[in-house]
Design a protein that fits this description.
4 helices, mainly alpha, single chain, about 80 residues
C-alpha cells in the first residue's frame, strides 16, 4: 500500500532518485507525492535540470583538459628556463 510522504521526505527521495537501490515502495510513494504536490514536482524538474547541467559541465571539462591561467603558464616557463 502506498503511503503519503511529507515534502521534506519527498525532497530527500528526489535527490536519491538516481540511486538504483531505492526500494520500489519509496519510488511509488515519491511518484504519488509528485502527482499531488506541484511544488515538489517543480523542485524535481529543477533538480534534474541542475544534475544534467553538472554532468554536461563535467564532461566538457574532461574533454578540454585542465586549463591554466596565462600567469601560471608564464611562471612554469620561467621555472623551466631557470632549471634548464
Amino acid at each position: 500500500m502506498l503511503r503519503l510522504i511529507t515534502c521534506q521526505h519527498a525532497t530527500l527521495l528526489i535527490e536519491q532518485h538516481e540511486d538504483p537501490t531505492m526500494p520500489r515502495r519509496e519510488r511509488a510513494s515519491l511518484w504519488l507525492h509528485l502527482h499531488l504536490c506541484p511544488n515538489c514536482k517543480r523542485y524535481s524538474k529543477q533538480s534534474m535540470l541542475i544534475a544534467d547541467w553538472a554532468r554536461a559541465s563535467a564532461a566538457a571539462r574532461a574533454q578540454a583538459g585542465p586549463a591554466l591561467s596565462a600567469a601560471a603558464k608564464e611562471r612554469m616557463r620561467e621555472q623551466l628556463v631557470a632549471a634548464g
